[in-house]
Amino acid sequence: MEILIPLGFFAMIAALVIVPRYFKSMERQRMAETLRVAIEKGQPLPTEIIDAMSSNVRTPGLPPSPQRDLRTGIIWLGIGAGLVAMGAAVSFEEADALYPILGIAAFPIFIGLAFIALASLNKTKP
Question: Residue 58: left (phi > 0), alpha (psi -120 to 50), or beta?
Fold first, then answer.
C-alpha cells in the first residue's frame, strides 16, 4: 500500500508528458488523413492550411530563440517555487522535511536561472 503513493506520483508525471503528445499526434494524423483525401479528390489546398501545418515545425540545428529560453526558465523557476512552497507546508507537520525539500527545489531553480541567463545572452548577439 505504501508503494502506491510514489507510483502515483511518477504515473502523474508520465501522464503529463505522454497524454499531450498522444493527442497532438492524433490531431496531426487526422489532419494528414484529411489532406490526403482532399489531394486524392483533386481539391486545391488553401494556403492557410499549409501555413498552419508548417508553423509549429522546428528546424533541427538552429539555436533556440531567447523567448523560448525565457519561457522555459520561468517555468523551471515556477516548479522550484512550487517545491519551496510544498516544503514550507510540509514543515508545519514535519520540521525535518524542510531542508531536503529545499535542496530538491534548488535544482529546478538553478536550471531556470540558467535558461534565463541564456535568454539574456542570446539577445545581445548580433
Answer: beta
Cell numbers placing 62: 538552429
Burial grade of 38 (CB within 10 A; 0-12, 13-18, 19 or more) = middle
pLDDT tops 80 at residue 28: yes
Its pTM surpasses 0.85:
no
pLDDT at 72 over 80: yes
The CA distance from 19 to 108, in Å, is 23
DSSP 42-80: TPPPPHHHHHHHHTTPPPTTSPPPHHHHHHHHHHHHHHH
Check pLDDT > 90 for residue 114.
Answer: yes
Cα(17)–Cα(24) distance, integer angstroms? 12
In angstroms, the Cα distances linking 104 to 33, 47, 111 are: 45, 48, 12
Quote the CA–CA distance of 104 and 7 in Å, as a whole number: 19
Triad 102, 108, 59: Cα angle to 5°: 175
